[in-house]
Design goal:
Blueprint: E1 10-13, E2 17-20, E3 25-26, H1 33-42, H2 49-52, E4 56-62, H3 68-80, E5 86-93, H4 99-106, H5 113-125, E6 131-137, E7 140-146, H6 149-154, E8 160-165, H7 179-187, E9 189-197, H8 202-211, E10 214-218, E11 227-231
Parallel strand pairs: 4-5, 4-8, 5-7, 8-9
Antiparallel strand pairs: 1-2, 2-3, 6-7, 9-11, 10-11
The protein binds S-adenosylmethionine.
S-adenosylmethionine binds near residues 65, 66, 149, 173 and 176.
């Protein structure tokens, strides 16, 4: 078990892509993290089409990291939402980044600029707090729960319409893909809700299927052959 620590130390790859020193892995695709967020997590969850139908929509994420997935989601939400709709985005993160590292990582995406500024302003003012709950605009709230994902999720009294499963690679960060955690994800998904993830690792897929999801493969981002997505059926299949 890794000791609790406040600062998540990084190295910087070519093109200023952040690499975790704790996990020896990148936070997102070296090709284009924003495009990866759009393809894997939004499109993989049927967004923005699915939120168009609902007055309230809830997204949950394993691994807040740089906040890039949240920012791309917020950008698309701002462009597509209708008056009165509400989005709640909850992310579980054990090793929060320092504000200056987050700022450096997010700098390449100029179309996220004003949204990034809003996030960094809030992040820097509550760096040491275990719960970060912010109204980002009148229709968008962000909740970052700082802690080990399985424990934090067991205490989460809500369910999501869509899950972004974004731990580091399963080989380097197995805790983020374990059978008990995938069961927690399923149990915290609304009937008809979905998940998406960039990995297609066989044991992750099996953990998600055993938890109860209907899982399928689809084309991955930037030349990756496969990723997986899944759905929680509206009605549980009968056992008889
Ligand atoms: C691939 S990165 C997430 C990238 C992020 N979604 C983004 O948009 O930048 C994985 C994240 O999972 C976090 N993490 C790793 N193990 C964890 C655990 N057991 N519980 C909670 N968070 C964890 C890491 O600190 C890291 O920020």
């Amino acid at each position: 078990m890794m000791a609790n620590r406040v600062r998540h130390d990084l190295s910087w790859d070519a093109g200023d892509v952040p690499v975790s020193d704790l996990f020896d892995d990148t936070f997102y695709s070296r090709q284009d993290g924003q495009a990866e967020a759009a393809h894997v997590f939004l499109d993989g969850n049927g967004l923005p089409e699915r939120w168009a139908m609902l007055p309230r929509f809830s997204i949950a994420e394993l691994g807040f990291g740089t906040g890039l997935n949240f920012l791309e989601t917020w950008r698309i939400w701002v462009k597509t939402r209708r008056p009165g709709q509400q989005l709640t985005f909850t992310s579980f993160e054990r090793f929060p980044l320092a504000t200056d590292d987050m700022a450096r990582a997010l700098a390449p995406w100029s179309d996220l600029g004003s949204l990034t500024t809003e996030l960094l302003r809030r992040w820097s003012s509550s760096y040491s707090e275990p719960e970060r709950c912010w109204q980002m605009d009148s229709c968008t709230s962000l909740h970052v729960v700082v802690g080990e994902a399985e424990t934090a999720l067991a205490n989460w009294a809500a369910v999501a319409d869509a899950w972004y499963l974004d731990g580091f690679s399963p080989a380097k960060n197995p805790d983020m893909w374990s059978a008990p955690l995938m069961q927690q994800v399923f149990d915290h998904t609304k009937p008809g809700g979905r998940f998406a993830t960039y990995t297609a690792a066989g044991w992750v897929r099996r953990n998600l299927e055993v938890a109860g999801f209907q899982v399928r493969k689809r084309r991955g981002h930037a030349g990756k052959r496969e990723m997986i997505v899944g759905k929680k059926l509206e009605c549980e299949p009968s056992s008889g």
